[in-house]
Each structure stands twice: as structure tokens, then as C-alpha cells.
Design a protein that fits this description.
This protein is mainly alpha-helical. The protein contains four helices and no strands. The mean pLDDT is about 95.
């Protein structure tokens, strides 16, 4: 498995946080259509970052990084 540097791990963590329901919907302040568009944009950014690092990365893996490394 290819190692991922700290900067890219932080980017994945920021994207994972952005995918939380509260953040996606802006605590219910935006429409469902806008929420779906926002999620699509974030998921595309995730895929682009996966291409950069050369492998698929799961949200579970990202959360494990954050629990294991307090500097993220």
C-alpha cells in the first residue's frame, strides 16, 4: 500500500469532515438539491486526491489516521 504524506492526509480529513451531514446541509440551512451538489463536488475532490496519491482511500481509513495522529 502506497504511503500518503501528512499534507494529503490533512486534505482527506478536511474532505471527510465536509461530508458530515451537518456540514453538507449547513445544519439544514440549504436545500436538498444544493446539499447533493455540494456532496458531488466534495466527492469529486476526493477522487482527484485519490488519483494524486495513486490509490483509493476510504473514509474509515481517514478517520483512523485522525485518531492515531493528533497532528492531523
Amino acid at each position: 500500500m502506497k504511503a500518503i504524506d501528512q499534507e494529503d492526509k490533512k486534505k482527506f480529513l478536511n474532505l471527510a469532515c465536509a461530508l458530515s451531514p451537518e456540514n453538507l446541509s449547513c445544519d439544514g440551512e440549504i436545500s436538498m438539491a444544493e446539499t447533493r451538489r455540494k456532496e458531488g463536488t466534495i466527492r469529486n475532490q476526493w477522487k482527484d486526491l485519490e488519483k494524486k496519491v495513486g490509490r483509493e482511500v476510504s473514509e474509515d481509513e481517514v478517520w483512523q489516521w485522525s485518531f492515531a495522529d493528533a497532528t492531523l
